[in-house]
Every structure is written in C-alpha cells, then in structure tokens.
Amino acid sequence: MLDQSTQFLTEAESAKVDAALLSSPEKFLARLTISTAKLLGIISADLGIPLASLSATHIIQWFEEDAKRKREQGIDAAILKWDSDDL
Fold first, then answer.
1. What is the pLDDT of residues 22-35, one digit of tens each?
2. Model-level pTM?
C-alpha cells in the first residue's frame, strides 16, 4: 500500500526527466535525486534542523522515528507509507 498524498516526484517532473537528453540510468538517477531532495526537506523540517546541517545520523534517526510511528500508530501516521509486502 503506497499513499500518494505525499508525492516525492510529480507527473510533471517525471515528464521533464523523460524529455531530458539523458540515458536511462541518468534519468533514473535524476528521478531519485529529485525525490530525495524533497524527502530531505521533509526530514529537515520534521527535525527542525537546517537542510545543510542534516547528517547521516539525523537521517537514520528520522527513518527510525517514522518506522516507529508506522508500527505504533498505523501506516497513515507515517510519512513513508510503504509496506514491506509491497516491495
């Protein structure tokens, strides 16, 4: 189950990547980078830390907290709404 209410890559952004003069691996990396930039913004805001100050430790901490919310409050309470059965 993947909730589309939080989009990390819009259809318009995906179309722009498709239109770019990039190889398939470069397009994949561009999509991943755009999505990651958005998620890092969410993490930064959630932790109250400037984006440029985020460390690997902060990011891991945030993922642990998001997973904990999902376990304790249900998938709708988490930002990342995937279920391992979907992977």
1. 999 999 999 999 99
2. 0.80
